Amino acid sequence: MITLDDVTLTFPDGDARVTAVDHVSLTARPGIVTGITGPSGSGKSSLLAVAATLIRPDSGHVWIGDVDAATLSRRQATALRREHIGIVFQQSNLLPALTAREQLHVMAELGGRRDQRDAIRRRADELLDAVGLSQHAGKRPAQLSGGQRQRVAIARALVHRPSVLLVDEPTSALDQERGAAIMQLIHDLSREQETATLLVTHDLVHRPALDELVTMVDGRAELSPV
Amino acid sequence: MTANGHDARLEEASRRVRGPERTIVFVAWRDLRHARGRFLLIGAVVALITLLVGFLAGLAGGLAAQNVSAVLDLAGDRLVLQSPDEGRPSFSESALTPETVTAWQQADGVSDATAIGIVQGRAAEASSGGSATTGVALFGIPHDAPASAVTELAPRHDDELGLSAGAAKELGVAVGDRVSIAGSTYRVSAVGSDLWYSHTPVVALTPPAWAAADRRFGGTGDATVLAVSGSPDWDAVAADTGTVANVPLASLTALETFTSEIGSLGLMIALLFGVSALVVGAFFTVWTMQRSADIAVLKALGATNGALVRDALGQALVVLVVGIGVGMAAVIGLGTLAGGSLPFLLSPLTTAVPAVAMALLGLAGAAVALRTVTSADPLTALGSNR
């Protein structure tokens, strides 16, 4: 579970500061996909960056399990991401030199989890099968379609059994049909893996794949009907 | 079997062969495989620089051996030369009077002080009538001096001489043949190991025969160097006698040709070391900047700086080891071939030492790129257009 409690984030803007996230509180529960939507510049990606421990908020708390990520050092935040957070980026952000299987294996080589190498290698094959890519495990990103690359990225985000899955605009580079398939895959895997999923999207055509929806306007969040 | 099934099997087999140690450079190893053209190019550059460094080192070693091997062979804790009124001590200018020699021999703590004369001249096989002369270094040394390869050449009689292997080869003579030097004829009593002084092969005479030859060359007949063993107060005795006493290696600076040759070759080698570090550093800096987006993604996924630095340095080490290995293999191969016609020395000093230095300097160059690794911001992975 991930809980953002009264989180505020500002950025410098000349002599003043602009508020990107304004006292936002929300909770994503295991097995539930919580969508975050809103117009450009509303603070969706900034909120996701805070949840991903990539930015420390000016105030508020980010509870991942019983750890307040807002208080962690950079090194501790890195370890938290490695152990408990899965991230799917807007673009697939796969490493060009690695095959689809190796994109998942690399999660055991980031430092600090060598003992889990065999488990991750075994799980990589299961997840590639789950996202329908077991036949493409030996291919590099350049040999895969956009949808296939995003499926590999989803499998990579889940291979270390994170409790929190953060997804940033996963369909922005896909056509509507492939986008819908990716959204459904995220929904199914979140439920199956019991990950608390926060998913940023501006495309409400995928609303059926969301369990909850938060709309952001000018840095403030409001719960919306799904 | 499908192509993908084949790929998977190949991958699994490859993983088994590589073993777990390769995963220390997990991404780097796959980068090497993926961008093999680029890494082959930088590896070839490293190999060529290694070839140049190795060849220069071998040549410098060979020239040094032709310059100083006889001096380094002299048996003594220190070599004593005359201290000139102006300038630095010099083997060719040094002249030690009998009083100076006696003072050193009688100094407290001295266990042995052997007076040796060194002068360069020309020698010829006697029957040639002096028509085919060759440059030689005449060493006047007693046959009962402390054991050394030079002492082994020393004859017992004034009408005899001992030849180093190089001298015998160049004169075309063997034991029992006769050699003429500055108007005197000597019988060859021994042919020994390959000893050189200032690029001329060594010929040993008795001290009286050497003194006579030196006078015929225009010298004083005085010994030029003392090989001293023991533990006297070196500085005090040297000051009292107007001499300098240095360990054999340090005394080589008194050989003008040695310092100028090794100085120039050493400068070239040092410049090549610098070029190597710069080239490797520039390559890995550009390469790391090109993959800075990948590094940001890995950091966003939870990679530690330590894991990324290990990966980057491991990649550089693989390139350096392969490049240097190929280059050094070429040096050894070509050096072996050239050894007969060039003064080329193949030894750990001219192969292993430059290779290790190249690797360390290359790693130092690659380390410059690490700043790009450690400063990459994982936040850029979010929303980046890749």
Give structural attributes.
heterodimer, A: 226 residues, alpha/beta, Rossmann fold, six-stranded mixed sheet, four-stranded antiparallel sheet, 10 strands, 28% strand, B: 386 residues, six-stranded mixed barrel
Task: Walk me through what this model shows.
The complex is a heterodimer of chains A (226) and B (386). Chain A is of the alpha/beta class. Chain A has one domain (2-224): P-loop containing nucleotide triphosphate hydrolases (Rossmann fold, 3-Layer(aba) Sandwich). Chain A is built from six helices and ten strands; from the N terminus they run βββαββαβαααβαβββ. Chain A has helices at 44-51, 74-84, 100-105, 117-130, 146-158, 176-193, and strands at 2-13, 16-28, 33-37, 59-64, 67-68, 85-88, 164-168, 196-200, 212-217, 220-224. In chain A, the strands form two sheets. A six-stranded mixed β-sheet of chain A has the order 6-7-8-3-9-10. A four-stranded antiparallel β-sheet of chain A has the order 2-1-4-5. In chain A, 52% of the residues are buried. The mean pLDDT of chain A is 91. Chain B has 14 helices and ten strands. Chain B is an alpha+beta fold and 386 residues long. Residues 1-23 of chain B have low confidence and may be disordered. Chain B folds into two domains: 23-65 and 259-381, no CATH class; 78-246, no CATH class.
